[in-house]
Write a structure and sequence with these properties.
OB fold (Dihydrolipoamide Acetyltransferase, E2P); D-amino Acid Aminotransferase, Chain A, domain 1; binds 2-(butylsulfanyl)adenosine
Length: about 675
């Protein structure tokens, strides 16, 4: 390679890798596989060695990677948080083993651990109390995310007395279980929000949220794997793992000690298969020299310890042909591109389609052309993903693929909302898949669950011009003659359907509210809103501020709900549904009071609490005769305040001289 070419290649690789680092660490939305990233980093490293004069001072080869997000307080790590070198095959591990033997001889042990695919966290304890939790950031300094980490149940906030030092740091990995990931992602889809690509991104996005209430709703977990103390307390890593476990930390039960590389290789091949049976994602195995003295002897390179290495499992990849790109319009109008592929076997299933996410993925990242050959991978993601294009197989005159500009269904020009990657069809009332999708959502299992009426029937009834909006479903009984003319629709099916529709009028308000399909109002949010506002009139009249006062209702939901009820057509539809007999008032639950000690008193709960969720505190207040109210006024009796409470609320309460109490004080009031 000529110096000129090398200079150019170093420049382009550096900026590409910096962008990937940014996507990974800051946006938590990587667009490249770890494997490809490492290959590019290796290439850059080799070129920089050959042409050091062209290496950029802040080259990705010199940085641990990562960046710090702006919203959190930055904390410098007492001990830098390094990353690990990666290996992908037995030969690379053998080289690692050889390097170690050369430095410290043959008498040593390895500890093998699962490599959890989450994000690393550093916890500081003082006097047995969790003092601080900081993300890795750039390895030197990270974000203080203590309030969010306090919501993780398996991280102890207070340790039972034991022989731990007064101050120490412990590091581990925060992650999300696959079950929770699937459940919460399905909820996001239902609410018209973009789903996360994998549990790691979900966990990372969650830990960096500003709203700890929302963090608490998204269950995270944590395995601890490294202890830092001022004075060395143990001789080996293994001993320290046993100790931290006895102090109350969660360590992983699958870690093992081996006296040579054969054992390590066995552990690796065992988990390469068994990993699919775990309830969380792992992306490899971490191998650490056990003895601390030997670790010290081996030392560090600029980026990582010499005494540890990661073995990364390879995500299975296959090559196949792109047949076409089609577009799906969801009930919220979001238009999602899908790659249709020549069917191919991958990780035990036949893959025919892959997600393309959005316009940028097609035009900017992959620069897809018609009939490209693409590499498909099924990693932590549920839906396969196109990793890259095999440019060698691209036909000479292949046309580039451009994301569509008009709705594939109704032809309306698509719009992109500021700050969002997705394009939307704005023709809410005239675009068939949106109209049908909204009605299908309404009758769905989690919403009105109407017996005798399924998605296909909704489609058929729409095609026959019998229904166009939810309230039309409740007028179907007026069209029995037309119903009889529908294909494959006998009298019995018609009666079943009409019965089901009639019965659905008894479904509780929260189900109706969820069924309306208001953007960002999923099942949980609908429940909260119904319980809090009690009826649709109060909900519809609520200002964004009043909506915001409800637990877990953030700005985005508040604005969306307010917008929905400001629309005249929506108001008319709700009035019609009311007349048709649907439930728009919450059923009053009979509460048996535990005591009357809070009777006549009003409360607002705000912030995050270490021991209780806000729901639990609400129950405690209500069961003892107290009442939760929506907004701070001079009439309010108490503000129960936890961590991270909004400053505006606090200021207002202070101005009005409202007593601000803790959860402990609240409990004190009821004895
Ligand atoms: S030890 C200095 N052990 O992998 C060594 N790391 O690429 C510190 N990880 O930043 C790391 N599971 O986020 C260690 N059992 C494990 C791990 C683990 C996952 C992550 C961690 C680290 C990255 C290194």
């Amino acid at each position: 390679m000529s110096p000129e070419e090398a200079k150019q290649r170093i420049g382009s690789l550096s900026s590409e890798l910096k962008q990937h680092n940014y996507n990974y660490f800051v946006l938590a939305m990587p667009t490249i596989s770890d494997f490809d990233f490492d290959k590019k980093l290796e290439e850059l490293n080799a070129l920089e060695k050959q042409f050091p004069e062209f290496a950029e001072p802040d080259s990705p080869t010199k940085r641990v990677g990562g960046d710090i997000t702006k919203e959190f307080v930055t904390v410098k790590h007492r001990w830098p948080m390094l990353s690990l070198g990666n290996t992908y095959n037995a030969q690379e591990l053998l080289d690692f083993d050889q390097r170690i033997r050369k430095a410290i001889g043959d008498n040593f042990e390895y500890v093998c651990e699962l490599k959890f695919d989450g994000l690393s966290i550093s916890l500081t304890y003082q006097g047995g109390n969790l003092l601080r939790a900081v993300t890795r950031g750039d390895g030197i300094q990270g974000d203080d995310v203590t309030t969010n980490v306090r919501t993780i149940n398996t991280i102890p906030k207070k340790l039972h007395p034991s022989d731990y030092p007064d101050e120490f740091e412990i590091r581990g990995e925060v992650f999300m279980h696959l079950k929770a990931f699937e459940r919460l992602n399905a909820e996001r889809l239902e609410n018209g929000e973009p789903p996360y690509a994998n549990p790691r991104n979900f966990a990372s996005g969650t830990l960096k949220m500003q709203d700890s209430g929302e963090v608490a709703r998204r269950p995270l977990d944590c395995y601890l794997y490294f202890l830092y103390t001022e004075k060395l307390l143990f001789k080996t890593h293994w001993e320290s793992l046993q100790a931290v476990k006895s102090w109350g930390f969660q360590t992983n039960e699958h870690s093992r000690i081996y006296s040579n590389l054969d054992g390590v290789l066995e552990f690796i091949s065992l988990w390469d298969k068994k990993r699919f049976g775990l309830s969380y994602d792992i992306d490899g195995i971490v191998i650490k020299v056990n003895s601390y003295a030997q670790q010290a002897e081996l030392g560090f390179t600029a980026k990582s310890p010499r005494w540890a290495i990661a073995y990364k499992f390879k995500a299975e990849q296959v090559e196949t042909e792109l047949l076409s790109v089609t577009y799906q319009v969801g009930r919220t109008g979001a238009v999602t591109p899908v790659a249709n592929l020549k069917p191919v076997q991958l990780a035990g299933t036949t893959v025919k389609r892959a997600t393309l996410h959005n316009a940028d993925e097609i035009e900017k990242r992959l620069k897809l052309h018609e009939h490209d050959w693409v590499y498909v991978e099924k990693g932590g993601e549920i839906i396969p993903k196109i990793i890259s294009v095999n440019l060698e197989k691209r036909k000479d005159r292949a046309n580039p693929i451009y994301y569509i500009i008009a709705c594939p269904s109704c032809g309306t020009t698509l719009e992109r909302k500021e700050g969002e990657a997705a394009f939307y069809c704005p023709n809410e009332e005239g675009c068939p898949p949106q109209i049908v999708g909204k009605m299908q959502h309404f009758i769905g299992r989690k919403a009105m669950n109407i017996d005798g009426l399924g998605n296909e029937t909704i489609e058929a009834l729409y095609q026959k011009n019998l229904i166009n909006k939810i309230s039309d479903i409740y007028d179907l009984h007026l069209h029995s003659d037309q119903l009889k003319q529908l294909d494959r629709f006998g009298e019995k099916s018609i009666n079943n359907m009409l019965d089901g529709i009639e019965k659905s009028k008894q479904m509780p308000f929260e189900k109706v509210l969820f069924g309306l399909g208001i953007r960002y109002v999923g099942e949980t949010v609908a429940k909260k809103l119904a319980a809090y506002f009690k009826n649709v009139d109060s909900l519809g009249a609520a200002t964004p501020e009043e909506l915001n006062a409800v637990e877990e209702i953030g700005d985005r939901i508040a604005v969306s709900v307010n917008d929905y009820f400001s629309n005249e057509k929506h108001k008319a539809e709700i009035e019609k549904l009311k007349i048709q007999g649907l439930q728009f008032v919450s059923e009053e639950k009979e509460v048996t009071l535990a005591s009357e000690s809070l009777s006549g008193k009003t409360f607002i709960i705000s912030g995050v609490f270490a021991k209780y969720s806000r729901d639990e505190l609400t129950n405690i207040i209500e069961q003892n005769g107290g009442k939760i109210v929506s907004s701070i006024s001079a009439k309010l009796n108490y503000l129960v305040a936890g961590d991270n409470m909004g400053p505006a609320k606090l200021e207002k309460a202070q101005k009005l001289n409202i007593p601000i109490i803790s959860d402990e004080e609240l409990l004190g009031m009821i004895g």
